[in-house]
Amino acid sequence: MPIPFSNASFPNFSPNPMNPVIGRGSLVSFNYSFHKPGHDAYPLVLVTDLNYQYKGNFYLRGINLHYLTFPVIKKLIFPAPGQTVAENTGFTYQYIKGDQFVKSSFRQYKKPGIQFLKKMNTQLLVNALSISRSFDPNEIEAIRKSVRNQINQIMNPNAANANDFLNK
Fold first, then answer.
1. Are 119 and 28 in contact, with CB atoms under 8 Å apart?
2. CB atoms closer than 10 angstroms to residue 57
3. Residue 140 pLDDT > 70, yes or no?
4. Which of 39, 54, 79, 114 is the most buried (most CB within 10 A)?
């Protein structure tokens, strides 16, 4: 259910369906009316700051996951075995500032431009990422070698194979 940005609150408030707890580590989606041409109008943001004030404006700041690849998101969400940054109130910009690729997806959104704010189920994302399988680099190299050999056999047949082909 969409909620107005002004009703979003930090964890020290009592959560209810009309006033969900949105804070650091929350995963939110919304329509952003102030997006620049070619930029994401419907961001999916892992929040680092809420109600951040700069030059008299209030902002929601965080990492737009739409700008990251699946393996990077997995590494970001699970920094170490058994740990997750989802719903972690200690999740801040300081956590990601050393990684230039992740840092490049950091955005701030003006409060008046945020519409239809929805808190997403981070547990669903955590579960999906925790069971996803990644390829072993050795397995990928074995697949490459096999494909390369098959292409070589097709493109460069030896004389015995050519005679067999011509005799048929």
1. yes
2. 11
3. yes
4. 114
Give the whole-number percent of the chain exceeding pLDDT 90: 14
Query: In this structure, what are the phi and psi dihedrals at residue 131, rounded to the nearest 5 degrees?
Result: -100, -5
Give the residue from 18, 6, 94 showing the smallest Cα distance to 58: 6
- For residue 102, the Cα-to-chain-centroid distance in whole angstroms is 9
Q: Domain locations in the chain? A: 5-134, 135-168
Q: What is the DSSP string of 139-162?
A: HHHHHHHHHHHHHHHHHS--HHHH
pLDDT tens digit sequence for 107-137: 999 988 988 888 887 777 777 766 655 666 7
Amino acid (one-letter) located at 87: E
Q: What is the pLDDT of residues 25-34, one digit of tens each?
A: 888 889 999 8
Q: Give the CA radius of gyration of the chain.
A: 24
Query: Is 47 in a helix, a strand, or coil?
Result: strand
- The Cα–Cα gap between 91 and 86 comes to 8
Instruction: Provide φ and ψ at 154, rounded to 5°.
Output: -75, -45
The C-alpha atoms of residue 147 and residue 18 are separated, in whole angstroms, by 55
What gap in Å lies between CA 1 and CA 77, rounded to an integer?
24
